[in-house]
Amino acid sequence: MRKKLVAANxxxxxxxxxxxxxxxxxRRDVAEISNVEIVIAPPFTCIAKVSELLGGSQKIRxxxxxxxYEMNGAYTGEISAPMLRELFVRYIIVGHSExxxxxxxxNAIVCKKVHAALGAELKPILxxxxxxxxxxxxxxxxxxxxxxxxxxxxxxxxxxxxIVIAYEPIWAIGTGxxxxxxxxxxxxxxxxxxxxxxxxxxxxDKTRILYGGSVKPSNAxxxxxxxxxxxxxxxxxxxxxxxxxxxxxxxxxEIEE
Length: 257
Ligand code: PEP
What we know:
The protein has helices at residues 16-29, 44-54, 81-86, 97-102, 107-119, 132-136, 140-152, 157-160, 181-198, 201-206, 217-224, 241-252; strands at residues 4-9, 36-41, 60-64, 91-94, 123-128, 164-167, 209-212, 231-234. By secondary structure, it is an alpha/beta fold. The protein has an 8-stranded parallel barrel, surrounded by 6 helices. The longest helix has 18 residues, at 181-198. The two termini are 26 Å apart. Bound molecules: phosphoenolpyruvate (PEP). Residues 9, 168, 173-174, 212-215, 233-237 line the site of phosphoenolpyruvate. Phosphoenolpyruvate is lined by residues 9, 168, 173-174, 212-215, 233-237.
């Protein structure tokens, strides 16, 4: 059984004050939920404060949105994996389509980040996804396979256990347009099949594959009830405590109609 995981990607939003009131409310509101792992990835400026507020919570894990693959050095404006670990960050979003499209991250760079993260005991949430043109041309499975193979590189099975995959069709991110549960399930099943070929069937079966792309309280339950959808990576709807809470509740099976 794969434990559901719901991750918040706050992107370039939230001040320290805003994140403080979010976390204070959220910790109280999820007190009764035990069957979902939650990750919150604030902007770097809020990480220290959120870390302090979470106080090592097992239920709500701290994430980060990006890191450099080198450990230290002359990389102005960058942050390294050991710096994040010092603040008790556990998960790192790697290869988000905004990083790929706006900051020129290639699969080769993503691969270096995945391995640097694993070396520093951070768990990568590796994002992959196709563009609308690629989907319309019927190439989505090939694109996802290439992204997986090139972003994982040579990886041993034990290290792979710490990786979470996020399927985020680019046409569904921040657009309000969600993949249908059926479209998402098909993509997740093809990702799991690729993992079973390139890692092993047993590891593929254990890997959590999250769906991301305009997840909201109104569609979360249906998406996460698909057999290969093990949770969600949530952007816009994670900025409001109530709506993120509803998505976490949908993952836990605790639904308010
Ligand atoms: C994301 O950026 O990872 C994402 C899924 O964003 P949104 O939920 O806003 O589409």
